[in-house]
Amino acid sequence: MNTSADIPDGYNTPVPSSIMTPDRVETRIGTLEFADGFPSDETAAKVFDHLDFLRAVEVFLQCVPAASMEGMRAGLASIGCDTSQKIAIADRLLDSNPLFLTGNTDTVYAIAMLDLDRDGPTVVQIPPGCGPGTVNDAWFRFVTDMGAPGPDRGAGGDYLIVPPGYDGEIPDGYHVAHSSSFTNLLALRGFLVDGKTDAARAMFEDGVKIYPLSAANDQPDMEFISISGKTMNTIHANDQDYYEEIAEVIRREPIEMIDPETRGLLASIGIHKDHPFEPDERMRATLTEAAAVGNATARAICFQTRDRRAYYFENRAWKTGFVGGDYQWLDGDGRGGRNIDARTLFFYQATLNTPA
Question: Domain spanning 80-229 has what CATH number?
């Protein structure tokens, strides 16, 4: 801290130069002008416009997990998977028609979106021998594993996914997991047998049941909808529509899903739980540019990261997509905080979050 002080012109008291504001400052956003430290109207308008831009770029980078989950939800709904009982299944594997970030072409996927707001506590019954499965919340945060890495250890069983704020009775006999959101992604994996999908398809169609706990005695029918060869998109927008996706997440999910700091960041650009998202012409232009810069920044982080820990070898391009190896992206057991660039790097190119 600079404590040395001279007496500036027009003052009768020594004032450290470090706390003074010059009348004119040249910056990357242009010339900023002040009168006795007060910004001119033009300067105030300029810096507020820049502040909106900065916050919109930050929203883009902070919210990639949520946008990705919203892309998954909307994509599945577009082919009819709009209730928990309608499961998307890659019964003839995946090709390039359905757009997924990290869909393998040799895995039989069974994917469903759970709606805990509509259904309340939801039972997910998986069969023995099910491959690794995962449930993630609306911000792509880990809720529970299933199958071999889950508490059933590959033996199959009944899971109960409990919504936020639920204070009712939880019966015995379930592997219980609590989610912080209403929307949750369930992804199960099955494997080829002798190069064929038949066994995995039959395992899912005969053994997977999803129903509200309240309907345990009158379970709804299941429907399996093939996504093999089907044109659909589960990837979030990279233009100004990105902010519409985030606004939809905030509108639908409980307010407690994210912390007040993040809620405040979103509200600063007009995304608010209690108000419609209606940016004016100036703000729409700002969001359009911010999305372009946010997307470019995410791509640089993902494809040309400056975090040397990502690279397996010196002077080589081969790198991991999971920098730090922590599913919560805590750096140094949290002493370095959350590695938000590592989180962006992962979720810009991949889906599903598990400590397994």
Answer: 2.60.40.1610
CA distance 130 to 145: 12
Fold classification of 59-65+236-349 is VPA0735-like fold (1.10.3360)
pLDDT of residue 40: 98
Q: How confident is the model at residue 157 (pLDDT cuts 50, 70, 90)?
A: very high
Q: 297 exposed, middle or buried (CB, 10 Å; 0-12, 13-18, 19+)?
A: middle
Please state, for a pLDDT cut of 70, what percent of the chain lies above it. Answer: 99
Residue 59 neighbours by CB under 8 Å, 6+ apart: 243, 246, 265, 266, 269, 271, 290, 294
Residue pointed to by tokens 């470019």: 296
For CATH 2.60.40.1610, the residue range(s) in the chain are 80-229
CATH 1.10.3360 domain span(s) along the chain: 59-65+236-349
Looking at the DSSP assignment, which residues form a beta bridge with residue 108? 190
Instruction: Give 16-48 pLDDT, tens digit per residue.
Output: 888 999 999 999 999 999 999 999 999 999 999
Q: Identify the pLDDT of residue 2.
A: 53
Bridge-based pairing of strands 38-39 and 223-226 is unpaired
pTM score, whole prediction = 0.94
- The 10s digit of each residue's pLDDT in 272-311 is 999 999 999 999 999 999 999 999 999 999 999 999 999 9
47-70 per-residue burial string, b: 16 or more CB within 10 A, e: under 16:
beeeebbbbbbbbbbbbbbbbbbb
